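Reopening: G-protein coupled receptors family 1 profile domain-containing protein still failing for me.
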Amino acid sequence: MSYYDNFSVDTDKFLLDVYKAGYVISYIAMTMNVIVFAILCRKTLLSPATILMQGLAAADFLTALSHYGFEPLFQSQYICETKKDVFLYNKCYLPYPYCSMAFHLSVLSFTFHTVSFLITTCLGIQKVVAILFPIWTKYQLTNRKAAICCVGFFLLSISISIPRHFSAWFQQGNSLNNQCSFHPIGDGVLQYSSIYYMMLQTILVTCCCLVMLMSTVYILYKLLTNKFRGRITEQRRQERRSVIMVIMILVVFLLTEVPKVILYLWWCYEYITGHFSTKMTRGNEMSSLWLIRRYENAMSWLLVYFTDIVRGSDQYRYIIFKFPMEVINLITIVGCMSNFVIYFLMSSKMRNEIILLFRKMCNYCAYERESKQIKDTTNSTEEEIEMNQIDIIGNKHVYDVERSWTNRMGNNCTYSIGINPTPGIRDCTKELENNPVQDTGDNCTKKKERNQIQGTGDDCTKE
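Support: Ran it again with your exact input. Result attached.
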């Protein structure tokens, strides 16, 4: 059985504007996480905690990318049609193959977000262990082990989400409007990808939030007691800042994850009590597909069917519930972005590295600009030198031509004398007689011009 991939938005399409705000926040979050990852790669900052922060930055970058990173492309491809129920609304969809692309990105958003909260939990545990066993942590918790933890979390999350990519296949619909249709592959894969995966996700998120909460309380307790009191040294000051930074990361993550945890727990309760099979009018297969493809839309419909918080028609209540679901997504992306702000505020090394990075960038830009100016000046100087060389070569060539022409005339005269002595002498004599006359005429003309300038008499005329 096939289903069409579409969703409802309000008449003014404010929901699509929320998507636009989402990709703006996502690009900011991606940029900040790239900066954090690049700065923490410096050898002076490498430690087990910073390696975990690098893994967290990579996971947050991929989470933001899979959530809204391709939304500008989708915004240009959305096709919306006006429908009427009790009120007017828009039915929107993505044409093929963009619908398949959006499906896999939706799966990846869960995958990388799972990595994010696993690494955040590990960061809190690492700080608790460092407080309890400082000597053991210094010698046993190495950079290599921290890197193995990050890679292990990525592999774990990817492995449990791979079947979700193969739970449905997409094709172009038979309708004239190019609407995309998707088909479930099998009941077993579909059931794991929706029901069992959501239960596993609920267990993981709930356990991680509980561990983070306990870690935060314990670290805060040690911070306020005698653990960090005494003579304030530079090492103690850095340790105190590090602890405060971890506390802020854990608190922000808890605040951004609590709404999702509440939704997960509510979904598990409704499923375990058997309400899905009795109240779902579209069948469990359709709801399972929507949990994979569009989690926010599926949860909005579930809230419509199982709650009476909002009054009105089903479409109206669905659109109302859709807005807080998207706000939860935006809060998740803000949580991905907040780590950069926390690092910048609490770590003096991070601030110094960022300032140094921007100084290097400015110096590089200035160096490139000066190099371009020097190169342009050098090119213009070389062109002038080449032009001067060409002029010199040209003048020399003219001089050589004149000299060779003079030599040729002399040689011709000598040759004529050798062959025809008498006529040759007569001809050459005529040429010699003509030349002095011409030279005399030229000299007289030059003298006349000079005498006119000097105001003297015309000696040539007298002569």
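Strands lie at 3-4, 6-9, 79-84, 88-93, 168-172, 180-184. If you still see a failure, please send the error message rather than a screenshot.
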